Amino acid sequence: MLTLLAKLFKALNSESSPRQIAFAIALGMIVGLTPTFSLHNLLVLFIAFILRINLSAFFLGFAVFSLLSIPFASTFAGIGEQLLTNESLQALWQSLYQSSLLKLAHFHNTLTLGALIVSLVLLIPVTILGQVLVVRYRHHVKTFIEKFKIVQLIKGSKFYKIYQSLTGTGV
Known about the structure:
9 helices; mainly alpha; about 0% strand
């Protein structure tokens, strides 16, 4: 977990796009809020590995939102139950359940359906909020920390320059 946090701070302090980091957290949110072994999570993992996102931010988002999903599980199940018992959606659920592939998606499970709907609704707001927070971190926290003399001494040392050349980072 500490290595994951270190990699996230490395990404936050690098020249990575704030949008990439924020979208990685939002994709991690989908996997974290929904039951892990689901068909849609395979699709999210595929998207995460195909797109240029920060995987450390993705896995950290997954871990954080997995913990956050525990107290909200009954709420997600309630939302899923409302959707599954809605009379106007019965034809949709029956047609989805007729497909062998979509049976594996477990949309008949109230928790899976409710958590997926909530996470899809939150995808854009979490991405935007994450992007704003990354930009604010870089403008305020990072510049504040870089003003300390000890940080300036470390960054000016020969050891730090050797470390940068070995790791290939320009942090």
